[in-house]
Amino acid sequence: MSTSTAEAHFQRTAPGLRVLRWPALNGHGVDAFVTTRDGGVSTGRYASLNLGLHVGDDDAAVLANRAKVADALGAELDNFVFCEQAHRRNVAVVTDEHRGRGARSAADAIPATDALVTAVPGVILVVMVADCVPLVLHDPVAGVLACVHAGWGGTVRGVTPAAVTAMRQLGSEPRDIVACVGPAIHPDRYQVGADVVDAARAAFGDQLDTVVRPDGTGRWTFDLWRANTLQLVAAGVPAGQVHVTALGTGPDSPFFSHRAGGPCGRFAAVARLREKDQPREKDQP
Q1: Could you read off the pLDDT of 22-78 as tens digits, one per residue?
Q2: Number of other residues whose CB lies within 10 A of the CB of residue 10
Q3: Which of 167, 192, 250, 262 has the highest local Cβ count within 10 Å?
Q4: Class of 5-185+238-273 per CATH?
Q5: Cα(108)–Cα(84) distance, rounded to whole angstroms?
């Protein structure tokens, strides 16, 4: 299993955004990155690249931020697909008909869904986070892509293996999947109660101690990175093709964190299968 943060790197895009990219994904028929706080127009607790329309920020600012992300890809916002994330294991298979869902209004996002899977080039998948872990899964052989949102709820319910199953239904083989596990709340900061431990025990069995650990205060810490890695490998993804970016969210991090201070913006994992002759996303010279 690969866990080196050196396997992902920050880069500036042409619109001035600072994004995190995975060399394991980019250049293999897919464009994918994770946004940061930097480069947007939102202010206050949402400063500055908040991509969430559902968190209390000014809608016009959020749409301007989303337009910047679209520009970084040389794409139109109407090609983006968002989902109403609900901490479940529901997966949506995205087709051309879904283009634009949730892009300009949270009201028409794909409902109650935490993973998006597609085999359609040019459709841009988005999951938003602010402590939960985003994952991008790509099968370069079958040409299948997934974006997953996993907090503890989605993790113990199995949203990540459910996404792998949906990819298989589109012709993917787990042995061909490259999985990139993005920034999330550090396990040392992710305290949970006995109810979560019980749910994790049911999900992870004798591997529980590698996912949940007592913190000495009567509570436990939960490792989203480790938990989702275990699930990917159990689903058939080779351990050497799982790339964990162990960068934590928080007040001194480039990534928004709800636990660090309450209501805040959302960063996102953004990914698309590149169409034939489609230019790659734009970097600053």
Answers
A1: 999 977 899 999 999 999 999 999 999 999 999 999 999 999 999 999 999 999 999
A2: 14
A3: 167
A4: alpha beta
A5: 9
Name residue, tokens 């890695």: 229
**In the chain, which ranges are E strands?**
9-12, 18-21, 30-35, 80-81, 91-94, 115-118, 124-129, 133-139, 144-150, 178-181, 191-192, 212-214, 220-222, 242-244, 267-273
- Residue 251 pLDDT class (50, 70, 90 cuts): confident
In three-state secondary structure terms, 79 is helix
* Beta-carbon contacts of residue 259 (< 8 Å; ≥ 6 apart): 131, 185, 189, 190, 249
- Residue 245's CB is within 10 A of a number of other CB atoms, namely 23
Write the pLDDT tens digit of every residue in 126-157. Answer: 999 999 999 999 999 999 999 999 999 999 99
Domain ranges across the chain:
5-185+238-273
Q: Does the pLDDT of residue 4 top 50, yes or no?
A: no
- Single-letter amino acid code for the residue at 13: T
Q: What's the rounded Cα separation, in Å, for the pair 46 and 59?
A: 12
| Cα(50)–Cα(37) distance, integer angstroms | 7
Residue 63 in tokens: 């749409």
